[in-house]
Every structure is written in structure tokens, then in C-alpha cells.
């Protein structure tokens, strides 16, 4: 995923959740960072109009500049210490819990609703493919690290205008596993999964394999689709400009029909020609190709007839021969791992159908962690909601709330307090030989894939919050 980016790398390479920590960021540069932001104060809540809830479109405070805090300076201070004992300063975070960030899958719920309304299974598969690609789009340029969910933390989101409700829970801390379950308010679909990222170091970059399956059930069609997210790679983790690449194969399977969509998130390559590109095809049970899918996960996705596509490629190849030489001249194979400059947009093959196009980000996005409109609203807490939400909801996290309001010192102190509290609770359980029990999800078998999965046990929305752990 998705959805599964940067933040986990941070935790991996710099282990935020260590039991002891060397508070890395140099004190003075952290203060400098504090000085250049946070003047604007307003909690961002918007009054309701016409009964339809209008969500806030910005955060209460702009973000602090990270420029003065280099990761290198933090690492230098900690030389000789174990990597697991380094804590990144909070200035590298974004004010969302990973549970909230995972919920950004739902930004393009209209695509699931569209898939439900289509009668042709091939068209449904195209729309599901668009949904799967659109789900990683919010990661574009989001290098802030979400807060690690605390064990037992939950997050709910109800969006009547988009027609769904979602509940998620942090079901394991080591390894970190986040489970979610969303359902349509009209009874059309169920969408669930769990994410457990596995990490690999490649020197200058870190790659996360987002383990865990995502399942989408279209109930009226009696269909289930499953897939997993592409690998997410973050470049220049030590020095230089951070940038994000999604790569690898994503296979979406329709269990009822046997149709399959294979999507290839391309590595960017030498000249950056493949940067952010996604290409793939849909085949039926007998492996006959029905359509070609292409686009960029940062922009848009198209589908086209395989024959039209092949004809177009042949034409392109003829034209390409003359271009080759020019390209080679520009090739400088230096050591940098910078994002290539070449960023031509998707060239549309005549006769293609648009499946999805990314929404532009709001104007204040650059000052606010590059959030999308959807992300801006995720930590919104109306006074009316306080009495309704479970006390474990991410919106009640004092560290995230403080950061959102621009109070970085308070955020930092609170984050440490919560982590300490979590460690103390773990030690207490160990002493008493108690096992942690999850509340809304149980480990079971995904009936479609036959593998182990975290499944929702139901009942969250009857709002019986007895026996919830006190994690804040
Ligand atoms: C946000 O501000 C409004 C008006 O100043 C106030 O009525 C409301 O209670 C505040 N909400 C929160 C969540 O602090
Ligand atoms: C937001 O995007 C810009 C433009 O690509 C980038 O330079 C910046 O580092 C990003 N900010 C964050 C917090 O990721």
C-alpha cells in the first residue's frame, strides 16, 4: 500500500520504538525548526451545512521546516550507539497515525461503488484495478512518517457521502500489524485486510514488502477480489532528497470468474522514462487477454484493447530508433540516487478509456505534509464526536493532536510518554504471564486465499466500549 511507505523505513533503520533512546536531533536545530512555523492558530473545523457534513480542508497549523534537521547530523551524534537506540525527532513525522494513513485507501471509494454498478465482469475488474492503483496515489511526495499505532489503538471513519464506514485496530506491535475492515452503508461491498511490512536495506534506499492480503467483496455480484500492494522504495534515506518509488507486480484475482489482472509497477530505470509507470493486462480464466492497462500511479490510469495497443507499440518502436542516440549522450552514470528529472506525462493511446485520474491536492498541501483533501480531514475531532468514538481512537492521541496544532515540544513529550506507558504495560503483562488480546479482529482464515488473515469480529459500531485498554 500502500499504502506502506516511508514511515516503516524510518522505524526500521532508525528504530523509533526502541526501549531506550538517544534523542537524536540536535537541540539547537530543532528549536530553529520550531521558530519558523506554527503562527496560524485555528482548529480547522467547519460548521455543518444542509445536514451534509463539510469536512475541514486544512490543518490547524502549517508544518515545521525540516531543513535545519538533517538525518546525518542525528546519525553522527549516535555513532557508536546501536541503531535500535536512536529516536528520530518528531519533525520528521506527519500528524497522522498509520491507522489513519491506511484509511486513505478509501479516498477513491467511488471506484468501488462504480464497480458494484457495472454488469460486465471485465469492466468491474478494470475498475477494481483502478481502485488498487488509486489507493497508493496518496503516497506521492508524502515523506513524513506517520506515528506508529499503539497496541490496541483503533481508528474509525464514517463517510456517509461516500457510503462507507471503516474500523481498524493495531493488532500486533512486534511485528507491527494493522488490520482494517470497511463496509458499504448500502450493503454493496466489504473491503478488508491487514498490513505487515517487511523491510530490506539496499544501502542508499530502503524497500518495504507490504505483506498481507487485501480483499474486496462485491456482495451483489457474489464476487471477491484479492491482491497485495506493490513494493515501496524510499531513496536517499541518509542524504539527498527523499523520493518514493512503487515497484513490483500486483495480481488482482477475481475468485468467481477466474479473471486476473496483472499490474507491473515499473522501477524508474536509467533515464527515468519509466518513472511512476504502471502497466498491465486483464486476462480471463483461459488466459486470453481482454485489455491492456497503463498509466502512472501519480496521475491516471487508462485501459485499451490489446490489438490497438500492439499496433501502437509497433509504430512507436519505428520512431524510437532515431531517438536512441540522443538519449545515450545524456547518460551520466554518476553515483547519485536522485529522482530523474524526466517526468513526461502519460501519452494516451487513441481509443483508450480513462479509468481513474488523481485529484489535485489543495493549495495549502505543500505546507501541510503534502496531504490530500481526504488526509486533511482524517484527524478532525468535532465536539459531537468525542462522546461517540471509542476511547482508543487515534483522534484522542495527545501527541498527534499536539503536532497537528503546531506544538512540537508537547508532541514530542507526549509521544515519549505514550511509548513509555506501552512498554510498562507490556512488562506488566509479561510479569503476570498475560497474553494481549485483540478486541475487534481475530486471526482466522481468509476463505478466498486460504491463508491466515485478521478478520473483523463485528460489533464495533454498537459502541459497547467496555474493557478497552487505557492506552493514552
Ligand atoms: C474548534 O473551534 C471552534 C470555534 O473556535 C470551537 O467551537 C470548537 O469547539 C473547536 N473544536 C475543537 C475540536 O477544538
Ligand atoms: C512535498 O512535496 C515537495 C515537492 O515534491 C517535496 O519537495 C517535499 O519534500 C514534500 N514534503 C513532504 C513533507 O514530504
The average pLDDT value, as a whole number, equals: 81
Work out the helicity level.
25-40%
| Stretches with pLDDT under 50, minimum 5 residues | 1-51, 323-335
Structural class: alpha+beta
The rounded Rg comes to 23 Å
Apparent shape: globular
Bound small molecules, which ones?
2-acetamido-2-deoxy-beta-D-glucopyranose
Q: Write the CATH fold name.
A: Porin
Q: Tell how many strands the DSSP assignment holds.
A: 20
Q: Kindly, what is the distance between the CA atoms of the first and last residues, rounded to a whole number of angstroms?
A: 27 Å
For the biggest β-sheet, the strand order reads 8-9-12-13-11-10
Q: How many structural domains? A: 1
Number of helices: 11
Can you summarize the main beta sheet? 6 strands, antiparallel, barrel
How large is the share of residues in beta strands? 25-35%
CATH architecture: Beta Barrel
The first-level CATH class name:
Mainly Beta
Walk me through this protein's architecture.
By secondary structure, this protein is an alpha+beta fold. The protein has one domain (83-320, 342-451): Porin (Beta Barrel), CATH 2.40.160.120. The protein has 11 helices and 20 strands. The chain has a 6-stranded antiparallel β-barrel with strand order 8-9-12-13-11-10. It has a two-stranded parallel sheet with strand order 1-2. A two-stranded parallel sheet has the order 3-4. α5 runs antiparallel to α6 (121-137) and α10 packs antiparallel against α11. The model is unreliable at 1-51 and 323-335 (pLDDT under 50). One 2-acetamido-2-deoxy-beta-D-glucopyranose binds next to loops. Residues 39-48 have a biased composition (Polar residues). InterPro entries: OSBP_sf (IPR037239), Oxysterol-bd (IPR000648), Oxysterol-bd_CS (IPR018494). Belongs to the OSBP family. Residues 401-435 form a coiled coil. Residues 1-15 form the signal peptide.
Amino acid at each position: 500500500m500502500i499504502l506502506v511507505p516511508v514511515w516503516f523505513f524510518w522505524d526500521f533503520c532508525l528504530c523509533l520504538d526502541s526501549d531506550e533512546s538517544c534523542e537524536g536531533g540536535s537541540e539547537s536545530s530543532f528549536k530553529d525548526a520550531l521558530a519558523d512555523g506554527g503562527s496560524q492558530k485555528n482548529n480547522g473545523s467547519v460548521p455543518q451545512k444542509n445536514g451534509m457534513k463539510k469536512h475541514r480542508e486544512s490543518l490547524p497549523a502549517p508544518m515545521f521546516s525540516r531543513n535545519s534537521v538533517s538525518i546525518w547530523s542525528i546519525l553522527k551524534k549516535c555513532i557508536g550507539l546501536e541503531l535500535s537506540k536512536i529516536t528520530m525527532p518528531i519533525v520528521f513525522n506527519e500528524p497522522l497515525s498509520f491507522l489513519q494513513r491506511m484509511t486513505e485507501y478509501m479516498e477513491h471509494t467511488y471506484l468501488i461503488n462504480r464497480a458494484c454498478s457495472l454488469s460486465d465482469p471485465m469492466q468491474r475488474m478494470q475498475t477494481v484495478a483502478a481502485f488498487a492503483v488509486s489507493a497508493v496515489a496518496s503516497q506521492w511526495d508524502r515523506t513524513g512518517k506517520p506515528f506508529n499505532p499503539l497496541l490496541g489503538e483503533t481508528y474509525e471513519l464514517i463517510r456517509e457521502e461516500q457510503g462507507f464506514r471503516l474500523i481498524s485496530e493495531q493488532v500486533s506491535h512486534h511485528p507491527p500489524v494493522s488490520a482494517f475492515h470497511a463496509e458499504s452503508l448500502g450493503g454493496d461491498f466489504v473491503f478488508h485486510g491487514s498490513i505487515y511490512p517487511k523491510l530490506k536495506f539496499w544501502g542508499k534506499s530502503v524497500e518495504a514488502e507490504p505483506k498481507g492480503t487485501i480483499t474486496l467483496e462485491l456482495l451483489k455480484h457474489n464476487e471477491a477480489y484479492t491482491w497485495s500492494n506493490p513494493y515501496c522504495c524510499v531513496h536517499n534515506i541518509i542524504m539527498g532528497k527523499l523520493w518514493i518509488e512503487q515497484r513490483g507486480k500486483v495480481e488482482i484475482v477475481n475468485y468467481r470468474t477466474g479473471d486476473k489482472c496483472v499490474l507491473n509497477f515499473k522501477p524508474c530505470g536509467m533515464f527515468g522514462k519509466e518513472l511512476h509507470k504502471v502497466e498491465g493486462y486483464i486476462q480471463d480464466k483461459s488466459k486470453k487477454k481482454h485489455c491492456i492497462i497503463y498509466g502512472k500511479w501519480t496521475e491516471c490510469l487508462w485501459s485499451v484493447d490489446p490489438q490497438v495497443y500492439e499496433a501502437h507499440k509497433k509504430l512507436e518502436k519505428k520512431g524510437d530508433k532515431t531517438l536512441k542516440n540522443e538519449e545515450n549522450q545524456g547518460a551520466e552514470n554518476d553515483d547519485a540516487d536522485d529522482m530523474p528529472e524526466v517526468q513526461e506525462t502519460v501519452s494516451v493511446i487513441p481509443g483508450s478509456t480513462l479509468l481513474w485520474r488523481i485529484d489535485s491536492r489543495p493549495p495549502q498541501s505543500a505546507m501541510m505534509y503534502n496531504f490530500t483533501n481526504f488526509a486533511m480531514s482524517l484527524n478532525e475531532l468535532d465536539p459531537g464526536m468525542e462522546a461517540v468514538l471509542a476511547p482508543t481512537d487515534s483522534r484522542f492521541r495527545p501527541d498527534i493532536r499536539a503536532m497537528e496544532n503546531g506544538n512540537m515540544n508537547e508532541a514530542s513529550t507526549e509521544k515519549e510518554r505514550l511509548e513509555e506507558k506501552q512498554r510498562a504495560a507490556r512488562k506488566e503483562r509479561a510479569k503476570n504471564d498475560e497474553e494481549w488480546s485483540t478486541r475487534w479482529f481475530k486471526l482466522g482464515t481468509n476463505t478466498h486465499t486460504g491463508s491466515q488473515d485478521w478478520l473483523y469480529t463485528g460489533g464495533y459500531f454498537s459502541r459497547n466500549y467496555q474493557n478497552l485498554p487505557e492506552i493514552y
